[in-house]
Every structure is written in structure tokens, then in C-alpha cells.
UniProtKB/TrEMBL annotation:
Domain HAMP: 168-224
Documented EC number(s): 2.7.13.3
Chief location: membrane
Transmembrane segments: 7-27, 149-167
Protein name per UniProt: histidine kinase
Organism of this sequence: Ilumatobacter coccineus (strain NBRC 103263 / KCTC 29153 / YM16-304)
UniProt entry tagged with the keyword Phosphoprotein: yes
Database matches in InterPro entries: HAMP_dom, HATPase_C_sf, HATPase_dom, His_kinase_dom, HisK_dim/P_dom, HisK_dim/P_sf, Sig_transdc_His_kin-like_C, TCS_sensor_his_kinase
Record key words, sorted: Kinase, Membrane, Phosphoprotein, Transferase, Transmembrane, Transmembrane helix, Two-component regulatory system
Compartments (UniProt record): Cell membrane
Gene: mprB
Catalysed reactions listed for this entry: ATP + protein L-histidine = ADP + protein N-phospho-L-histidine
């Protein structure tokens, strides 16, 4: 069932229920007021007849809409103008007989189905019953019922029509949104224009359209990143693959080459394979996004940096000196932070050929924690401070050095995904200082 039908039927149901409730209230109110009017008229007639005694027949023409019945203390009908079908309730008569002025008011049904309103008034010599047919009241109430049913039907039709029109107006942007989604599915294009997303409407449809447009934008950006990653990876893979192919071709052509030359080529092959392995591993890390999407943890930044520094120092056989504030807590995935710090220290070890210690400083300023890794390498040109965090970017001074070109881009992705930022500058006296900032948590 479509949204239009659901809204139309819902409004129709609401219209029927509301009309029915009003009708029931009106019917009960009208019925009560009509019965009250009948009771008042019967009371007036009864007061006159109660003192009429033997003159009841002579005064009947004055009360031609009423019927009368006098019953003595023995329960015998002394006089009546009721039709034979109107019942005599002995229990009611017994309850008021002989008690002057006591009145019992009841509604009875004659044998022919006609309803009567009957007042039984106690007299010292018995009771007198005054009744009046409710035929006119029943006719009025029946007409009221018919009108209520007709009004309910009209209200349901009007509500359904209004619901259909309102739902059609509401569903129009949803249909356009569905059409756009189907267009994305069939064509694969993510640049579909959504007019509702460009409007100023703040209703749910406008919010949904803007959310859908934002999702398409994120998908388009992700697709562009994937395409750029594939293109960049293909470009970066060509160099080591070409070198491998060249070295293998040389070995095939010169199978009797000197041992010194063979050893040199094998060392080159080993280096190219190692570089390819590092590049593939980094590509898998970037493509999977696991370091960014894992659940964040509350981590002691200084403690983790010290642990990573010791590990990298042992592997690289370099001294890594970590200084700074302890007890600085940040919220970030452990694996992501570990990899970011490791990449920074590995990067410093690679470019710092002095053999001296790698300095890592952890500091706190306000509500921000900072990590800075200093080396004594070639440094970074001032116009490339931001570019070094791009994928596969290399400065002129480092193009011939091994590496995947993805290490610092992974640092940027991990840190910026959790509210941080990256920074790079040159070290006084030579070298670079590269690091990141992260917001502190309690």
C-alpha cells in the first residue's frame, strides 16, 4: 500500500471516528433532553389528574396526547384509557400505592412495539398512571441517527480526499527522491541533482533529501579517493616492477656474469621486493580503513608513545628518546594511534642518517595534546609542509629513497578522523619536526 493510500485511509478513519463520537454525544444529549421534556409534560398532566378524581373522563379532551390509568389499593384497574397492549407492572404499582405524591418514572414497551413514557403517582386510594407515547421522540432520534450516518460518510469522503491531496503533495518529493535513487542504481552516477536538497525546507522530507545528497557526496568522494588511490598505486608500482623486470632480463641475457655483478643485481631484486612488500601492505591498510573505523579507546598518549618508541628503536637499532607530559589521555583506536606514532618514528629513522637519537616530545597545551618527532635529515621545503601528508608525495631530496609514500598519509587519516590535525616544520640546525595534535579527554 502506498503512502498516499495510508494517509488517505488514516484521515478517513479519523473523520469517521470523530464524527461518530460527536454523533453519539449529540444523540445521547438530544435523547435525554427530549425525555426530560416528556417527563415535565407528564408531571403537569399528572398533577391535574391527581386531584380530578371522578372527572377523569370529562377532562380527557384536554389531555388527548396522554393515556391514563387509575388502580385502587387492591391492584384493580378502576379506569384506563391505555391500549390493551400497554403492560401493568404490579411491582411498580405496589411500590407507590397509598403513598401520596410518590412518583415512579419508567419507559415501557407495548405489545405492538411502541414505547411509552409512564409515570406512576401514589394516591391515598391507590395510584394513577399517566403515559405518553414516545413515537415522536423515536422518530426524531431515528432521523438524527440517519443524519449522523450520512454526516460520517461525507466526513470520511472529505477526509479521504483531503488525505489523498495532502499525501500526494507530501509524496511528490519522496517520489522524486526515489527516482533519483533508482537513477543512481541503474546508471552508477553519483552526481544526481536533488532539488529538494538545495531548497530551504526544514521539514522531514527536506532533511531526508539533504541527508541523501550528503550520502551521495560522501560516496562520490570515496569513489574518487578509490580511483585516485588505484591510479597512484599503479604509478608507484611501475617503478619497482620495471626495475625487477630489467634486472631479471639482465640476468637472463648474461647468465655467465661475474659473481660480483650477480650479487649486486640480487641485492637490487631483494630491495625491490622489500619495497613492493611494504607498498602492498600500506595499500591494504589505506584501502581497508581499519585503522580509522575501529572503536575509539581512552588511551594514555605518553605511555603509548614510549612503548612504540622502544619497539621501533629495537627494530631499527636506533635510540629513541621520548620526553614530555604523562597522563595525557586521548580518545582514538589503539591500533590507529600505534600505527601513526610508529610511522612518524620510522619516517624519522629513514631520513636521519646521522645515527643520532630520534627525539619524540609529548606536550599538553590547553585541551590539546601534541606529539612531535624530530630528526636530523634533509628537512622539508617550506612550500611542501602540507603536501608531505598526501599519498605518494615525495620531496625532490627523497625521491631516490625507499618507501611507500603512504606512511604520513596514514598518520593524517588516523588523526583527522578523530578530531586532530597534523603539523610539519623544519628543525633549527637541520632536519624536520613532524607530528600531530589530538583533543584531550577526561
Amino acid at each position: 500500500m502506498t503512502l498516499r493510500w495510508k494517509i488517505a485511509l488514516s484521515l478517513a478513519a479519523v473523520g469517521v471516528v470523530m464524527t461518530a463520537l460527536v454523533g453519539v454525544f449529540t444523540y445521547r444529549s438530544a435523547s435525554g433532553r427530549l425525555i426530560d421534556e416528556i417527563d415535565r409534560s407528564i408531571d403537569q398532566a399528572g398533577q391535574v389528574l391527581a386531584v380530578s378524581n371522578e372527572r377523569l373522563p370529562q377532562r380527557r379532551e384536554v389531555f388527548d396526547v396522554y393515556s391514563f390509568r387509575r388502580v385502587n389499593l387492591r391492584g384493580e384497574v378502576a379506569m384506563t384509557t391505555f391500549d390493551d397492549g400497554v403492560p401493568v407492572d404490579d411491582a411498580v404499582i405496589a411500590s407507590v400505592a397509598g403513598q401520596f405524591g410518590l412518583v415512579s418514572k419508567d419507559t415501557v414497551v407495548a405489545d405492538d412495539g411502541e414505547r411509552y413514557r409512564l409515570h406512576t403517582t401514589g394516591l391515598s386510594i391507590g395510584v394513577i398512571q399517566v403515559g405518553r407515547s414516545l413515537e415522536e421522540v423515536d422518530a426524531v432520534l431515528a432521523d438524527l441517527r440517519r443524519r449522523t450516518l450520512l454526516l460520517s460518510a461525507v466526513a470520511a469522503a472529505i477526509s479521504a480526499l483531503a488525505g489523498w491531496l495532502i499525501a500526494s503533495r507530501m509524496a511528490a518529493p519522496l517520489r522524486r527522491l526515489a527516482s533519483s535513487a533508482d537513477q543512481v542504481r541503474t546508471s552508477g552516477r553519483l552526481d544526481v541533482v536533488l532539488p529538494e536538497a538545495e531548497g530551504s525546507s526544514n521539514d522531514e522530507v527536506g532533511q531526508l533529501s539533504r541527508a541523501f545528497a550528503s550520502m551521495l557526496g560522501a560516496l562520490a568522494s570515496s569513489k574518487a579517493d578509490q580511483e585516485r588511490l588505484v591510479q597512484d598505486a599503479g604509478h608507484e608500482l611501475r617503478t619497482p616492477l620495471t626495475s625487477l623486470r630489467t634486472n631479471l632480463a639482465v640476468m637472463r641475457r648474461h647468465q655467465q656474469m661475474p659473481d660480483e655483478m650477480r650479487t649486486e643485481i640480487l641485492d637490487d631484486l631483494d630491495g625491490e621486493v622489500s619495497e613492493l612488500t611494504d607498498l602492498v601492505n600500506e595499500l591494504v591498510t589505506v584501502a581497508s580503513g581499519d585503522l580509522v573505523t575501529q572503536p575509539a579507546e581512552r588511551l594514555d598518549l605518553a605511555a603509548l608513545v614510549s612503548s612504540v618508541g622502544e619497539r621501533v628503536g629495537r627494530r631499527r637499532q636506533r635510540q629513541v628518546v621520548v620526553t614530555g607530559a604523562s597522563g595525557s589521555f586521548v580518545s582514538i583506536p589503539r591500533a590507529g594511534l600505534d600505527r601513526a606514532v610508529s610511522n612518524l618514528i620510522e619516517n624519522a629513522c629513514k631520513f636521519d642518517t646521522s645515527g643520532g637519537p630520534i627525539e619524540v616530545d609529548v606536550s599538553v597545551a590547553g585541551d590539546t595534546a601534541a606529539v612531535r618527532v624530530s630528526d636530523r635529515g634533509p628537512g622539508v621545503p617550506s612550500d611542501e609542509f602540507d603536501k608531505i601528508f598526501d599519498r605518494f608525495h615525495r620531496t625532490d631530496a627523497t625521491r631516490s629513497m625507499p618507501g611507500s609514500g603512504l606512511g604520513l598519509s596514514i598518520v593524517r587519516d588516523v588523526v583527522t578522523a578523530h578530531g586532530g590535525s597534523v603539523a610539519a616544520t623544519n628543525r633549527p640546525g637541520g632536519g624536520a619536526i613532524i607530528g600531530f595534535d589530538l583533543p584531550l579527554v577526561d
